[in-house]
Amino acid sequence: MASIYKRGKTWTASVSTKVDGQLRKKTKSGFSTKTEANKWATSIEQLKNTGKLPFGDRLFKDEYWSWYTVFKEPHIETNTKSWYISTYRLISAQWPNMKLSEVTVREMQLLINGYAESHVKSSVTHIKNMIGAFCRYAVDEGMLAKDISRNIVVSSKKKSAGRDTKFLEHDQFLKLIEAAKTQNDIASKMILTACYSGCRYSEIAALSWTDFDFKKNTISINKSWSPKDSTIKGTKTKTSVRTIDMPEEYMNIAKTWTLPDKIMFAGINGKPLTDGSCNAKLNKLLSTFSTSKLTMHGLRHTHASYLLANDIDIQYVSERLGHAGIEITMKVYAHLMNEKRDKEKDKTITLLEKL
Asked: How many separate domains does the chain show?
């Protein structure tokens, strides 16, 4: 709020706003009447509410980078960092001299639209979310009057890979497991582990023998491999730390493996086999009975799809995958949820018709 007060024979007006967590004042003195002081204060309040006060005229890209390095970079994993950095590069290229006070909803939408021309929707959403997080911070700190990312529409002209490339049908899944069992290379062992556990590549790559409990037939997921840093780190999220129940058949096979203690699936260089090497072996195995192409992450989707299609409770599947909640699981596997809903609808109508 504005402060109006008299000093001697003239009036003074002062308007406060928060910048970087600190209050800053814009003050003007010498008004002959209180009305004039109020009029000036009102005009400044309007500038404040639109984020156009002079001390808010800093470059958008500079403030974004400052926010990232202080509040995000020290606390996030390498893969997530790459999205924040990609966002910074986009902002720097498109808005090299754009001030915070100059960025409007229209400018933001144009930025997102331009990026969407050559990127899939999931990537566009990542960029929008990165900018949105900064905008909410800027609003809280008084650098922006409102969250200019809130009503941005995300779309894309570039289509993502089709569903058939993301997971296997059930008969293909079973054939893959049988094929992997006949192999003795490290990649096949990682593929088999992915099929039975639904774990991410990074989680499998970080496994050690101490994570296996052969009495309870479980695997403990408590760390992950970061290829970019070549180090063992924490899991993707807190909910990713979990204990996974494994079938006795898989555990009996694992007992026969002769592998290193600390990093089970290490190659000759002492590091886990790469995601690319696993994908190459996976598609070589698939080529013997199918034309489908898949990645290790596709095995995670296949594992979950297989369980859900066989009426395993979604809450348990969500916990097994390490999702933060069933909302994420339902979103990722919406197509399966819709299929199950249609089946339940038909069963319900058949039941009711017997009344």
From this structure: 3
